Amino acid sequence: MDNNQVTIHDIAAILKIDSSTVSRALNNSPRVAKKTKDKILKKAAELGYQRNHLASNLRKSKNFTLGVIVPRISRHFFSTAIAGIEETAFKAGYTVIICQSLESFEREKSIVETLLANRVDGVLISISMETKNYDHLLGLKQRNIPYVFFDRHCNINENSNVLIDDFDAAFNATQHLIDQKSTTIAHFAGPQNLEIYKNRFKGYKSALEKNNIVFKEELVFTSSLMENDGKLNVQKMMNLSYKIDGLFCANDVIAIGAIKYLKEINIKIPEDIAIVGFSNESISSVIEPALSTINQPGLEIGVAATELLIAKITNEGEKLKNETIIIKTSLIERKSSLRNS
Amino acid sequence: MDNNQVTIHDIAAILKIDSSTVSRALNNSPRVAKKTKDKILKKAAELGYQRNHLASNLRKSKNFTLGVIVPRISRHFFSTAIAGIEETAFKAGYTVIICQSLESFEREKSIVETLLANRVDGVLISISMETKNYDHLLGLKQRNIPYVFFDRHCNINENSNVLIDDFDAAFNATQHLIDQKSTTIAHFAGPQNLEIYKNRFKGYKSALEKNNIVFKEELVFTSSLMENDGKLNVQKMMNLSYKIDGLFCANDVIAIGAIKYLKEINIKIPEDIAIVGFSNESISSVIEPALSTINQPGLEIGVAATELLIAKITNEGEKLKNETIIIKTSLIERKSSLRNS
């Protein structure tokens, strides 16, 4: 084994203990028992482990800059999450630079390269709708730059995430439509390569099952959830032989597109079709009828993700610990779904 | 004169011609007459002018990154301007990094430092409400990094700007209120250290004068134009002895705050008070009554500013040319000001 290449992971694998414990022991942390520490130090010496001073130094020459990658800054959820990020970063002395993937995988890739070139200290990322593999994030891992996913994450266990419970929120939204006497409920779903939209779909399906409503594949319309998709989906939906009386949308933007078009063709909301969206865009409380939706606390998510990221940046010994924080959501009931009011 | 320090500006000053002409001549541009070119080359040799190769080389090691500094990404105008910036930058192969000053001069300063450390190729900037001096931009100038102001600029002639005609837009907004039979018109003004708000105030004042309406200092309320300022200003306004029947606001956000509070206290819009805002936020077309406003074409402004910046980055010979591009605005008439409809 080439001495220069012995890592804490090698030591951890040989001793069958966590890399984080090895890291702590080598950093002389009081949180590691004397006995374990001795064992680790002995093995490290034996293998000729040398702390990667170059990496260490690089890590220490901080720029005090955090990179943020979001699909779109103009979405209410992302702009409030960014407000939480800025607030928390500023308090800790970091400047925030924001980049938009605009839902393009290619752009997301080149943004990661730009952030690497700019030697940011850490990255907060919510992936694009097109992102199906995560090789472009390897550069961050290799250079030891911590990153935290928020909202749109990928299904890799070893990452740090700040999320909401999309399944649970979608279940509640659908249950609410059922409580409001909807029996044939359509779902405007998002791209199923993203965990969040997969889980919203699952929550919808599960609420139907729990209420003994037969799930029908034809009532699910998948798109990239833009306003115009709302109109297109309603047109397709109206061509079906089912009498649809409830609609759960995976975001507010497509729900607003649907409402505008349903009004044009004189379908009454909520009498004919009750509608619930997702994310609580600012416009949702002002359109007529106001849109029921899931409140996704962007500010809180931004704060939690930034706190987690800064902890990973500053606490070298802890940086291998990955955790997932779940932030609570709530259903906001407005006119678009309330038949009894 | 130290030879190393002779710049094209020195040559320009001595010969009493434009720096841009000197630059073109030294770059052997066909756009400079043979006679002028000879004169410039002679003087350059005489003074011992040496092209700054270091700066030249630095300029050539491009990152293909543009930095954008805006007060707030959540404002409709800025998010549409950013959309225009992204679109234009992407076509030219640049990645865009966005930073928010959140109206703080301190933050704006540290953002400029961050962008400098990140070696961006150019900067698009719309200054904060607190910004009263521009020393923090000197670092960009010294390192030969071009920058273009959009919307919120500073009153230095030698800069490049993409602006709207704020005076003209404000004049039209106020004239419209007068046409709608308002005779006592208040103005909710923005911070007067910013050129844009100064010009909106001047446009308002000029329209009054043109219509022989006496300008009254007491009817002008200056604030940082947040939604809550709308309520506070209305409260102050209602304590005056004047019967105010028209209101021109320097942005939509404060106008919306005013509308919400006026409705609470049962003042009828537009019957009692006709209102016009500025910028056309998305929410302005949906609130009741819909807000008349100035359409500030963000997308177009973003595109023009980016084209200008990229021209300055890529066209070394032209980079000293500073110009100001004015983008046309229009008045959008909605219910909040239309008394005859």
Describe this structure as you would to a colleague:
Two copies of one chain form a homodimer. The first copy, chain A, is α/β, with parallel strands linked by helices. Among the domains of chain A are: about 1-60, lambda repressor-like DNA-binding domains (434 Repressor (Amino-terminal Domain)); about 165-295, 3-Layer(aba) Sandwich (Rossmann fold), CATH 3.40.50. The first copy, chain A, contains twelve helices and twelve strands. Chain A has helices at about 10-15, 20-25, 35-45, 55-60, 75-90, 105-115, 140, 165-180, 195-210, 225-240, 250-265, 300-315; strands spanning about 65-70, 95-100, 120-125, 145-150, 160-165, 185-190, 220, 245-250, 275, 295, 325, 330. In chain A, helix 7 links the parallel strand 3 (about 120-125) and strand 4 (about 145-150). In chain A, helix 1 packs across helix 2, helix 8 (about 165-180) runs parallel beside helix 9 (about 195-210) and helix 10 (about 225-240) packs across helix 11 (about 250-265). The N and C termini of chain A lie far apart (about 75 Å). The model of chain A is unreliable at about 55-60 (pLDDT under 50). The interface of A and B includes residues 86, 100, 102 and 107 of A.
